[in-house]
Amino acid sequence: MGQARHLAAATALIAAAALTLGACSSDSDSGGDTGTGTGGGKAKETAPGTPGSSTAPAAGTGGIPAPATSGGSYYVALGDSYAAGVMIPETVPGSPKNCSRSSSNYAHLTAKQLAVPSFTDVTCGAATTADLGAPQVFKNGGDSPAAQFDALGPQTKLVTLGIGGNDIGFGEIMTTCVMRSGDKASPTPCKDAFTKDGKDVLAQRIKDTAAKVDASLKTIRAKSPDARVLLVGYPSILPETGDGCPAQVPIAVGDLDYLRGVIRGLNTMLSTSAGTANATYVDTFTPGLGHDVCQPAGTKWVEGIAPQSPAAPAHPNALGQQGMAAAVLAKAKG
Questions:
Q1: Contact indicator for 114, 329 with CB cutoff of 8 Å
Q2: Closest by Cα among 151, 116, 129 to 30
Q3: Which residue ranges have biased composition labelled Low complexity (predicted)?
């Protein structure tokens, strides 16, 4: 396949993935923030206490109410598409369609291993820190889940949070880097696109997101003061060395180091925020080394733009969720 056709196919796949994930919430500078307001979706009723279930609307928030018990489930999972396990079978019954919440995500696997007395998963594809405290509204319409924080309560003893990637514009970064990878005018077309007036735009976004993560951790502590809070980082996506794998992720070779730095920078910020908030950071990057997108099926934890196993493009597959669950479980038991 020629370079032009390859890029066209890659762009089409990314666009399709964006639609599947709800194309993020409402507009923001980084392409990830959401506004307030209510969704027009109707809650689907399932048995109280099951993942994706609810008993009554969450006061003052609108949208599909978060699963609720009088004081919150023992274990509550919060987060974005990496936490939700987007497009990995099977979708949690009764959960909002746009969230694409998998029953094989790391939270479900962790809950099963710990045999917790009650568990609520409110993770959702395309979520940003803003969607933790307000209903998540999707550009493509559909059910609008209530604020993820509504699932928390004083009886909650364990919380996992995986967030931040959409705040820095993960979808935009993917699309930009793939679309510019054929630009021969510069060896680093993606880095150039995110450099304004000599400054790294993504580094600034990570810095700005730190304050949002800090505020989110404070809210969790206020709502669930006795909970063990685990802030889950992002796994290794690109190989640590070499020229990458254009068939899986068509990115200019010169941009690979830059993007590796973005992932490491995001994780470093999350680790620092966890330490500041007396939460526990879960490193999924280190155990994910050697399981990057360029590895063969059965080894890779993260899929490329044309997934070989069920998962969203550039997202963890079932094996990746299992690997992340092992890291989460180790900290939860520690």
A1: yes
A2: 129
A3: 46-63
- Phi first, then psi, for residue 79 (nearest 5°) are 150, -170
* Rounded Cα distance, 274 and 86, in Å: 25
DSSP 1-18: --HHHHHHHHHHHHHHHH
Please choose, from the candidates 92, 34, 43, 40, the residue with its C-alpha nearest in 3D space to the C-alpha of residue 66. 43
Name the active-site residue from 81, 118, 181, 224.
81
98 DSSP 8-state letter: G
Given the residues 30, 73, 104, 315, the one annotated as active site = 315
Neighbours of 309 (CB within 10 A): 15
The pLDDT profile of the chain, 334 residues, written as one tens digit per residue, is 456 655 665 655 555 555 444 444 433 344 433 332 333 333 332 333 333 332 223 333 345 545 555 689 999 999 999 999 999 999 999 999 999 999 999 999 999 999 999 999 999 999 999 999 999 999 888 888 999 999 999 999 999 999 999 999 999 999 999 999 999 999 999 999 999 999 999 999 999 999 999 999 999 999 999 999 999 999 999 999 999 999 999 999 999 999 999 999 999 999 999 999 999 999 999 999 999 999 999 999 999 999 999 999 999 999 999 999 999 999 999 8
Q: Which residue blocks in 148-290 are alpha helix, DSSP H?
A: 170-179, 189-193, 201-223, 256-276, 285-288
Fold of 3-39+46-333: Rossmann fold (3.40.50)
> Please, are residues 86 and 70 in contact by the beta-carbon 8 Å criterion?
no
30 is catalytic: no
Dist. CA 53–CA 38, nearest whole Å: 19
Nearest Cα residue to 180 out of 195, 200, 197: 195
Question: Does the annotation count 81 as an active-site position?
Answer: yes
